[in-house]
Recover the amino acids of this structure.
């Protein structure tokens, strides 16, 4: 999971957006399909959508040989999957969220605040010998932030899966709701 | 329809009746008791008590395969349900429409490691077309309706429904839905099928071959296939499951190709410039080494499952659709193409194909042999049935000999486990076939290893008075594995001799069946005659065949399709 972006850039990596029924075991169905067909999940994020009966999944998948259409078609066969699409690399907005805890004496806090500001990140928790930074952005931006903070000693880090939408008016509507 | 108050278990039974189910296969147990209690009052359903749930699953498969209807099986929670795993996986691989119903422990006990609890929906998820864990009794009618719909439509397959015992005991107001509404199921293809382009490829080809798979049976498109093949006039090859899709007695039919196909069928595929694949999935057992498969061929691939197109072999023209609906349109487009531009000249191609047929026939070299050759046994049984029986098999060498020498002239007459390759399939399938087709002669060609995997259900066959005839081609080996050991493992016969085989005649008699044995060529015909004439219940025939006989020709695993060993 959550490979570094340098590797994401140079592989057969695809971002799939799925609209799925918000029902028990749907995540299991999808994860199990990826596992048994040999598709490597690099990142996965699930959350509610504008309609309570559906969830949206953003799956970043690394494919070794098979064309991505094969994965899309296999996913489409799952009954709780309403719609699947590969998001075009040029036409998508992607975001990740990271929380970073740094154990460091108070004298360093000012410098950390400056770094956070550069990355439009926020300090969300402060104690005398530790602080926590929250940042959102593209994977490469968060990678850069992590690298910058590494010298201070990252003691704990939690990064979300990637979420993504296509720019413009295009949507991923379930088939029966399309006009 | 007025709503009727009943329990969840009664709703299951009512739904089965409304789906027109007559036969179902199962065994009761603790958690499924409510369903069996409701079944006790049903006047329409006929339940076959099997002796092992796996057999119930395969019997339902045999029934479905032979009749084209949905097969139904039931099992209790825990081991009952896990015993259904093999038939579900088998039905999934072979696209057999099945509805499997299991009960689970009461909702409050789920997740507590209760007695006879298994996460069976978690287990069957990757081996079913869809599955359900019903937690609300009011969902039962909808789920039953959806299950049958999903099982039989599109690419057919098994659907599994798991219902906790307490849900079966709750009450609901039963109303069976008239329609199904499953928004995520079988979305319409976004593009129009490129029929004109496909037809032009057929018109332009001078070395065409038509490749038929199990999809013809699954799509029930036998007449449509016949019309297309007659129009094109190309050589027709089939997979194991394609046997019967087009009459093997037709001069254009070259029979099965692949790992144990004939040389002439494989050479034809390899030499072709166009493969029209209809309801097939380019399985590794038919393509051989993928990168060397039919190097000069363009591919028109028609299948109902879009995920099969360009999965292994890239289609020049992929056509997504139901064979029964789309193939006639393809045929019409091809006809139009022929009328406008004239028929393609494939006479020279046929000459080459006939040359291969003459040079490399599939033959049986019984002359001078002391022992019965298994191929001879298959051929003699086939001749004596005059090709009219429905044949089923286990898995192994006997299955391949049956595939090579049992010529199928009509649909749904060759029923076997192809994709999963499940030993023990023969007897259970024969039970289901005979119940589904009571007037048909049902013949099993089995192996001694395969037969011993499910033989306890002879009791079921006797109970139901089924006149099935199981011919065991007995070589006292796990023969196919032994063949690979001889050819590829320096004759190191690790754990393949079955020297302590039971006395199958006595075994048959212990189960109150007719048991017969043929040891020599002189005995063979008489024994087959007696078996075929026996109508009062099952008959088991032990045919002692030459032990070391191998299935030839053969494409070694990983070799190109035309790189065959053995045979003529």
């Amino acid at each position: 999971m959550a490979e570094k972006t340098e590797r994401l850039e140079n592989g057969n990596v695809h971002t799939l957006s799925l609209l799925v029924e918000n029902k028990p075991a749907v995540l299991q169905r999808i994860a199990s399909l990826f596992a048994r067909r040999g598709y490597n999940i690099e990142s996965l994020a699930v959350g509610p959508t504008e309609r309570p009966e559906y969830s949206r999944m953003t799956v970043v998948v690394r494919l070794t040989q098979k064309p991505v259409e094969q994965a899309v078609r296999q996913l489409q066969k799952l009954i709780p999957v309403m719609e699947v699409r590969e998001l075009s690399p040029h036409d998508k907005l992607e975001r990740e969220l990271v929380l970073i805890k740094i154990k460091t004496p108070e004298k360093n806090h000012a410098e950390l605040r400056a770094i956070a500001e550069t990355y439009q990140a926020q300090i969300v928790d402060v104690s005398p010998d530790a602080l926590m930074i929250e940042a959102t952005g593209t994977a490469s931006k968060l990678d850069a932030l992590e690298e910058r903070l590494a010298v201070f000693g990252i003691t704990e880090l939690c990064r979300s899966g990637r979420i993504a939408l296509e720019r413009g008016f295009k949507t991923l509507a379930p088939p029966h709701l399309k006009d | 329809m007025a709503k009727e108050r009943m329990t969840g278990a009664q709703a299951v039974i009512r739904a089965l009746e409304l789906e027109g189910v007559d036969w179902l296969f199962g065994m009761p147990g603790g958690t499924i008791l409510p369903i069996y209690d409701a079944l006790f009052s049903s006047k329409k359903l006929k339940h076959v008590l099997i002796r092992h749930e796996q057999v119930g699953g395969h019997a339902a498969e045999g029934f479905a395969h032979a009749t084209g209807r949905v097969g139904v099986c039931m099992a209790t929670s825990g081991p009952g349900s896990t015993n259904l795993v093999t038939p579900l996986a088998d039905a999934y691989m072979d696209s057999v429409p099945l509805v499997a119903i299991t009960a689970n422990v009461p909702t409050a006990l789920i997740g507590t490691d209760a007695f006879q609890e298994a996460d069976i929906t978690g287990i069957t998820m990757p081996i079913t077309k869809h599955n359900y864990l019903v937690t609300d009794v009011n969902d039962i009618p909808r789920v039953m309706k959806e299950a049958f719909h999903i099982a039989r439509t599109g690419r057919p397959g098994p659907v599994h429904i798991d219902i906790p015992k307490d849900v079966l005991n709750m009450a609901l107001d039963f109303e069976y839905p008239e329609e199904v509404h499953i928004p995520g199921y079988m979305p319409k293809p976004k593009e129009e099928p490129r029929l004109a382009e496909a037809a032009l490829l057929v018109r332009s080809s001078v070395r065409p071959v038509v490749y038929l798979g199990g999809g013809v049976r699954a799509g029930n498109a036998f007449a449509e296939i016949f019309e297309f093949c007659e129009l094109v006039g190309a050589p027709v090859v089939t997979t194991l499951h394609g046997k019967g899709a087009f009459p093997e007695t037709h001069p254009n039919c070259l029979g099965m190709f692949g790992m144990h196909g004939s040389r002439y069928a494989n050479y034809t595929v390899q030499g072709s410039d166009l493969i029209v694949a209809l309801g097939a999935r380019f399985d590794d057992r038919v393509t051989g080494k993928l990168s060397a498969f039919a190097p000069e061929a363009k591919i028109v691939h028609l299948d109902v499952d879009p995920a099969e197109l360009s999965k292994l072999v890239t289609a020049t023209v992929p056509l997504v659709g139901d064979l029964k609906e789309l193939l006639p349109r393809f045929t019409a487009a091809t006809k139009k193409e022929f009328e406008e531009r004239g028929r393609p000249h494939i006479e020279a191609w046929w000459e080459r194909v006939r040359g291969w047929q003459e040079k490399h026939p599939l033959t049986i070299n019984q002359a001078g042999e002391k022992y019965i050759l298994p191929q001879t046994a298959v051929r003699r049984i086939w001749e004596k049935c005059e090709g009219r029986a429905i044949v089923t098999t286990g898995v192994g060498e006997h299955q391949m000999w049956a595939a090579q020498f049992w010529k199928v002239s009509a649909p749904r007459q060759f029923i076997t486990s192809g994709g999963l390759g499940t030993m023990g399939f023969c007897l259970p399938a024969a039970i289901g076939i005979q119940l589904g087709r009571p007037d048909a002669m049902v013949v099993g060609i089995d192996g001694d290893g395969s037969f011993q995997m499910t033989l306890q259900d002879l009791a079921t066959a006797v109970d139901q008075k089924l006149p099935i005839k199981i011919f065991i081609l007995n070589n006292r080996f796990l023969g196919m594995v032994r063949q690979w050991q001889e050819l590829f493992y320096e004759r190191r016969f690790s754990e393949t001799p079955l020297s302590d085989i039971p006395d199958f005649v006595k075994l048959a008699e212990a189960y109150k069946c007719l048991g017969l044995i043929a040891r020599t060529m002189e005995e063979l015909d008489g024994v087959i005659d007696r078996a075929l004439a026996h109508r009062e219940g099952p008959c088991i025939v032990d045919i002692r065949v030459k032990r070391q006989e191998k299935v030839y020709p053969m494409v070694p695993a990983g070799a190109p399709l035309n790189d065959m060993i053995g045979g003529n």
Observations:
- Chain A has two domains: 5-86, 93-163.
